[in-house]
Amino acid sequence: MQAGFWIRFGAAILDAIIVGIPLAILSYIVTGDFDDNIITNLLSFLYTLLLPVVWGGYTIGKRICGIKIRKVSDLSPPGIGTMLLRNVVAGIIYAITFGIATIVSAFMVGLREDKRSIHDIIAGTEVVYEG
What are residue 69's phi and psi, to 5 degrees? Predict the structure, then answer.
């Protein structure tokens, strides 16, 4: 069963709390600066890119919420290429549309029957309840 907007949002909030806040604190300890720190941004990017690859489609937040990313084609966990499409290519689209595509994606997850967003469609993925 596909995961909808609120459970995905909850997983993102958990990731921000569990991973983002400690990263920001660690980065501040290392650099003495909270403002737009490249170390925090890089580590956050690597977390969202690599953890689903090595952990079978999960991030920490997704694992806690009982959802995971998988490929639509064969229902397998995402590989590095899939996650690059999902995060980098979609991120470029979100950036060049000044965030409008991000809002459209949120509505897509909330309203589409298959609950797939723009980055899911680009990468050929879906977010589903584990099982």
Answer: -90, 135
